[in-house]
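Handout, page 2. Input:
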Amino acid sequence: MLWILIGFTHSGKSYLGSRVAKDLGLPFHDTDVLLQRVLDPSASLSCRELYQRHGALHFRSHEARVLESLLHTGPALVASGGGSIYHTELLQRFSRSSNILFLDTPFMVIRSRVQSLPAFSPSWEHFEAEYHRRRDLYTRHAHHSLVLDPRRDAVQALKDIIAGSTHGK
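Output:
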């Protein structure tokens, strides 16, 4: 089964996805890394920098192509980009053949992770509004949700969901 991890930027999709995929013996695909290879083969720019350089339309267009290329990859774990939630038609297609899992990371945790990044200088009010707007979309599209809690082993919790699940909400 193909598993798609969705969630806000810096919610832990790449970190948890790579660890869980390794533990479960699944291929792992990080759409941000794949997108960086397409838009910046030298791998010198982050996705945020690529977004700023190329603009939203160009970036999202390539992001959709990367996602679509993973649609029929077979059993694997995919960490999607935080904005991939805006590719509604693609997510609906994934929903029919994959499990979509929302990593529900509290806003203050995400804020603490991004506030010191050099390419990151948002208006916190706008950033938080976007977080809540996307959170509603993530919840709507997900078959499963995992609320990330520092008192709980997130790797084990994600493995438990994947190991114990069949397709569906």
